């Protein structure tokens, strides 16, 4: 499929499980996620697959209506009780009666992910999942993604996070798919593929340099169990 000026002749079949969409700035990751979430139509080609897709987009604040965090989440979670339970599990209950626009970036990211997953979607897309999240936020999100049980697309440049959560990786460059394959194979070729504008994160880099398993290392760092 093609989206003029943004994605060119992309043919992609996304497997079950978690897939990481990786690439440098402007490579087309957000465009691909929006197509998968049916928020954008291709100029040419088609998107097949789940229609009920939960989306946590790059700017979390754009998905909020307010007036409070709990009310926003209650809209997608099907009620205030369920919303408060989700906020408690995510460690965000203290902010439940505040305006969502007062949340820090990390808190807003957590709320937007909760809103994306809480209405029973058939698939979920998360753009820049770790942007604004500290170490404990990343661990919470990695373990949540591992338990979701529906196909998930995560897009960004955080290779360590992608390695911990995803079994399959797609690398975009200038709106085209340059690499797609199982995560371990993609990670092992990253150090040589300097033209892709991506560098392994510290955990994956250290593992590759020491001859260790990069997936296991990234999962250990984020406490993801499989
Ligand atoms: N609405 C739009 N109209 C025209 N061009 C757009 C539009 N949205 C994005 N683009 C362009 O399409 C290309 C891909 O954008 P996209 O947001 O998908 O990239 P990305 O890989 O998510 O980048 P980043 O890592 O910076 O978020 C970029 O060159 C961008 O400037």
UniProtKB/TrEMBL annotation:
Q: PANTHER family from the xrefs? A: ABC-TYPE COBALT TRANSPORT SYSTEM, ATPASE COMPONENT (PTHR43553:SF25), HEAVY METAL TRANSPORTER (PTHR43553)
Q: Which InterPro entries match?
A: AAA+_ATPase, ABC_transporter-like_ATP-bd, ECF_ABC_transporter_ATP-bd, P-loop_NTPase
All copies of the ABC transporter domain together span: 3-199
Write the protein's name: ABC transporter domain-containing protein
Q: Is the Nucleotide-binding keyword given for this protein?
A: yes
Concerning Pfam families, the annotation shows:
ABC_tran (PF00005)
> Gene Ontology cellular component?
ATP-binding cassette (ABC) transporter complex
Q: Which GO terms describe its molecular function?
A: ATP binding; ATP hydrolysis activity; ATPase-coupled transmembrane transporter activity
Tell me yes or no: is Signal among this UniProt entry's keywords: no
The record's keywords, sorted A to Z, are: ATP-binding, Nucleotide-binding, Transport
